[in-house]
Each structure stands twice: as structure tokens, then as C-alpha cells.
Protein: Conjugal transfer protein TraE
Organism: Adlercreutzia hattorii
Amino acid sequence: MSQRENAKSARKERASDKEKLKAEKKLAKARIRSERAARAKSKRERSGSTSFIKQLMGSASRSDRSKKAHEEKLKRQKKARAQAGEIASYIGYDAIYKDGIAQVEDGLFSQTIEFSDISYQSARRENQQNIFTVLSSLYNYFGADSCVQLTIANVPIPDEEIGKKRFFKASDPDTEKYAKEYNRILNDKMREGVSNLTRHRYLTYMVGADDVWEAVPKLSRIKGDVIDTLSRIRCEAHALNGTERIEAIQSQLRPKSPFTFDWDKVSPVSNTRTKDLIAPALIDFKPHGRADIFRVDDAYGCVVSIRTFGSMLEDDYLAKIIDLPMPLSVNLHIQPIAQSDALALVKRQLDWMDKEIIDEQMSAMKKGYDYTILPPELRYSKEEAEELLDFLRNKNERLFTYTGLIYTYADTVEALERQVDQIVSIGQGNSLGIEPLYYRQRQALNSVLPLGMNHIDVARYLTTGQIAMQMPFASLELNQEGGGYYGQSKQSGNLVICNRKKLASPMGFVCGKPGSGKSFSVKREITNTVLAYPEDEIIIFDPAGEYGNLIEALGGVNVRLAPDADTALNPFDLSDVEGRADAAQLAFKIDAFLALSSAMMAESSEGLPEADKSIITRCVEAAYSRCADGQGMPTLSDFHEILNGQPEAEARDIALRYERYVTGALSFFNRQSNVGFDNRITNIDLHDLSTNMRVFGMLTALEAVRNRMYANFERGITTWLYIDEVQSLFGHPTIIDYFAKFWAEGRKFNLICTGISQNTSHMLTHERARTMVLNSDFMLLHKQASQDLAAWADMLSLSAAEKEYIDESIKAGEGLLVAGGARVPIRDDFPKGALYDLWNTKPEEIAQLKRAHLFESNAKRGRG
């Protein structure tokens, strides 16, 4: 081909390319016009043209004007607060009332709820999902007219308390030396704690009202709904009263000062306000010329802000910050946005993005580029905005204005800088941008007080799920006032103090393999109870005869049930039960005798036939009727005689089964009771009874305990019952039914019952037994055999991490404490001494101790 022809062909190709480009531009312009027309049509459809719509738009405009006026007023109040020359006037509230309600600003009132910790980080995935769902519903509950502040505060235990705290009073001469030793040991262990911090979780909500009387019903309704919602995840919550709330504020405002507030010092005559009594003597917001820290009295503080999040928000980032062994508080200020406003906001963003996309496409066509290729950041932003719009419309998500603040303090600037660096480092490791607040520490300090008001204009938008993902639950600490010692936290080393009386259902179980520390733990809790509650009564069922030395040391009595013993318990006894309904007592006694009869049928696991139940019921009623004329309580002889008088052959078979308990060597239950429970600690020793007789004896003793429980309830006294080898009561359906009824009734009459077992998989195969476990809020699990571990994992929905706390690899004394919604991994290296010797059950150490005592006594006799 010639050169002229080549040039001609090239011109044709260029002309063809130009025509194609023109056609593409026309198509792009047509597409853009079409998109604009569709958006305009959609906008017209949304806005409408009727007078009714215009009226709504007019009212919305008036609402916007009112909202702007309110915002301007609030800005002026915040500015005045920040510029206050007097310290007390600077503190971010006007008044706090005795019921805990605070007037934060003119027309704004808040209330604070404190809620307990629960096990989240080690929980199973489905349990975590349930907690996330509940917290999402909690945040969605608040309306656009309210403000919410979540505070998690690590408050140091005062220095004067560390090593000097009195856990138990030395009031009884029998137990005084043990109380002193126990206090010394626990104070030593207190020093071993990683942080020696107490952790508080507060949820503060604020509403608008003309005065406090209008605010009270609003806040009361919110309080009830919040507490009910938190109870769904077994989170205990209560509203702080005025004193508690002022203490919570002072713990952040004056962290180094003791709390000495007294309502009697508040006086309108002298114009003394609550905040005058907690105001620091000095606040310097430019110490050493610094603009990112402040000084309050003798402490230096710093508030930093959570500015950015990574692409994936993890649910444990807060936990990692909270678990830092330092005093700090994390505050999340959450302002709900009305759903209509949130949708309009996202749509406006999408409109701007569409405009930017069109501009990008026009620019690309002018430059001859492919207009369908968009910058990645713009494309991703558009996808995120569309996803957010879908969440708000279809997935029960709401939009919030969010401000995250972290406050820490120290004795020196150097120590404070180290703590801030640790916080920032943890944030960086979790893709968080944590930055200082220069020249805004004055506003920041008021923002971290649990008052519900955010004074910092640093915010971003987050959805319900993004906020609920920021879990306020870290490594679980259990430190309940008035409780007993159960070990040290495996994670922090802090003392684990549990008060079973504060649990919704204090019934419970202590389970573990032989040698796992089970008996040691039970004896320790018995000692806790004796020392902590001097008025309570304690009864122990001791099938192995291993509690006798402990009971004697604590001033209790041992009651031995055996064929050669002088003590007797009458199964028919109704002493100490004055004033109880006869019909109810008779019904329970019938259940007891059905269980006793079932205990004698060792060859059958099916329980009693219905005919036998009817005969036993008839004869129990007849026995009480025979003795109703003041002849005392019936005995097994009366019952046996009545059985023999019945026409049915089954009655004679039942009588034959009872015969060995009526005459002969085993007839020691066929007498009137001569065992009293006058001593507050009673150990019922069943060691010398055979296996069948032991169950019979335990059931008979349970009836005596039930009588005592009623009497103690009338006197306002709690009865503690410990049943060792409790699995023996789950051998027959009738016995299980009786024991389950006893367990359920006991909760109503201040009975705290503890079942102790080394073989739980067999026990948990029974439906009634499983129900008893599920209705119990206390479980202390030590090392478990593989079969028992599987049963507990299924029963309590244990996670993989929680199963590791009770598997074969752990040491004696370690385990998992379940107390209500709390699940705490524990360890216990209790030092040797008088208490250790009382609780110790290791055969070799006991033998060594006995040899030492024998040697000492022989030496004394030799000297004599």
C-alpha cells in the first residue's frame, strides 16, 4: 500500500474515533440528564404539592427554629460554665437532689444508673450476640430529645485501705483468732492485686423539662425500662441516690480526696451547695505552660479523644483499655438523631456524592478517559453511604452523634505521660486514633463527670451497631460488699469477694474431682459465713465425717447419727413449726415419706408405683390423726402398725420394707427427736451409716432442717445448709421430686442451700436436677472429669475459654466461679497456718499434722 493510501486510512480511523467519542459523550450526557430527571422526579414525589404537605413543612420549620434557639441557649450555658471564675460554679451541674436527680443546666435534668459486670469476653458466641442485641435495643430506646453517657471508671482503692482493711469482725471468742488471721492473709493478698482498682459502670441519661417535678416522671420511666432491659443479660442495675452520685462525681473530680460529704452541711441559709462540698481547692488548666493536661489539687489529669476507628471495629478494644492497671474512665457521649433527620442527612450525603460522581465523569470525558472509572475513595464512600441508608431503613439501626473520651490521672506529670502513652498505644494496636485535646481540657473535665452533658465539640456519626459493639465489659472483677473470699482472679490477681445473699437465687453447687480443692473451698465458705454473719445458722450434712474438726474449732456441735448413738431424729417431727398451715405441712410430710420409701427400693430406679403412693399417703394421714389428741408426734412404729392394718397386699410389702427401721439395730429413727439446733453451727455426721441408711438419714435430717428453716425465717435469720455427696439424693425419681420441692421452697424462707458433688454427669441426667441447677445462681466448679466437663459445658453454655478453667490441666484450688451473671476464673494459693489446717483435706498433710501433734503431746507428757 502507498504512503498516500496509508495517510488516507489513518484519517478515516481518526474520524471514526471522533465519531465514536461524540456518540459516547452524547450517551453519557443523556444518562446524566436521565439521572438528574429521575432524582428531580423523586424529589417532587417526596416533597408533594398539597397544602397539607406545605403545612407539615411549615411546622417542621418552626420546630427547627425552636431547636436552633434551644441549641443557642445550651451553647451560652456551656460557654458560661467554661468561663466561670469560681471553681464551684465551673463544676458541670446546678443542683443534685437526695433522690439522685441532677439539674445539669436550666431545663436539663439527668439521672445515673450503675450496672454490674457480666462475663462477655469469655462467653460463647451466641451469648455475646445476645448481649450485643440487648445493648442495641437499649441505645435504640432513647429518643432524640435525650442525651446518654456511658462511663466505665477504674477507681483506685485508697492507699490507707490497702493492707489495713477489716474483712471480718473479731466479735466471737471462739473465732477471734481465725478472724484476725483471715484479715491478715486477705490484706497480704490484696497487695498482690495487679491494679487494686474498683470498677464502676454508669449509664447517665438527660432529658429536658421545665422543672424537676416535670423531669421526675420522665426519668423514672426511663429508669424502669433501662433496668428491665439490662436484666435480660443478667446485669444488675440500680439508680444512684444523691449521696452515691455525688461520690461518683467526686471520684473523678478529686480522685485523691476522701469522700466526706454530708447532707447536713448543705444549707440554703448559708448558700452552701452540694458542689461547694466536693469542689477542689485548685484547678489549673495550664500547669507548667501545658495545654493538654490539667492539675486538680495534688493530681495531674488528661482527657484524650477517640477520633478515628479502623475499617473493622472490634468488640474488645474498650476492654483492653479498661484492663490497663491504672486509674482512668472511659466516657461515651451518645446523642440520638431522629430517624427522619438521619435519613435526610444520609440522603443529602448521597446527593453530594452523586454530584461529585457526575463531575468526575464529565471531567473524565473531557480528558478522553473512561468515565466509568471512579476514584476508589469516592466509590467506597458511596457504597458505605448506600449501606448505611439500607441499615437505617430496613435493619432497625439508628444514627447517633458520638464522642469518645478517655480520662486518666497520676501524681506526677511523668507518670501521667506514661499512662497516656499506654492508652494511645493500645488504641493504635486496635486501629483507633486517640488524640489529645489541646486547649480544651477545661471543657473535657466537665464532660467526663457522670452528668450526661458533653461539653466537647468533637463528634462523629455512628450507628446503633457500631456503638453497641463498644462493650463496657472487660475482665470480670467480683467484689461484693459484705461477701466472703473465694480466691483471686486468675486474670488480675484481685480478690474475688462474693455475697451470695445478693444473688437473685443464692442456692448453688460446688463440684469437682477428688483432690480438686472442692472440700477446701466449702470449708472456707463455711468459715466465711460464720465470721461474716454472726446471727445466721449453719447446718452441714457430713457423709464422710470430714467436717468435725472445723465445726469444733468454730464453736459448733457435731451430731452423730449411727446405730450406737444416743441421738435420734423422728421423721414425723413437726417441732419448731408453730403457725404453719396444717394442710401444707401434711402435704410436704407425705412427699417426704414417699421419698423415704423410695430410698428403700434400691433394686428399682423407676420410683414408687402409684398404688404404693396412695397407700403411703393414707397411712401418713392416719398416723397424724391418731396422735392429734396431744399424745405427741407419731413414730415409725405407728406408721408401721397402720400399714399392717391395711387390706392391700402392697401395704404389707411396704410394711415389710419398713420393718428393719422399726425393730432391731436400725431402729434408731423410731424414736422422738432429741436433737436440737440451739447452736448456730450444727454438723450432722452420717459417716457410720450404710449407703441405704445414709440416704434415709439425709432425708430425715432434711425434714428437721425444714422445720428449723421455718422457725429461723420467723426470727429473720438465714439458714445455710451444706449437703455433701448430694448426688446420692438423685437416685430415685421420688427422691428427686421431694428434694426439688425442698430446694424451691427453701428460697422463699431464707434458706441458702449448697450441694457438694464429685460426680455431676449422673446428677445432671435428671430433668428436675437440671432445673434445680438452672434455677441456682451460684456455682463453684473445680477440676472436672471429661464426662462431667461435657455435662457442665452443655448445662451452662460454657465457652471454649471457660471450659479451660475447669479442665484436667488446672491445679487444685483453681476453677470457675459462677455468681449470677458473673463468671470469674479463680486461683487460690492459701498460705499454711491455723486456717489452712482447718480446711485442709489432703491425706498426707493431715497425717503429717497428726504425727506432729502426737509428737508434741508425747513430748509434753515426757517433760511432765
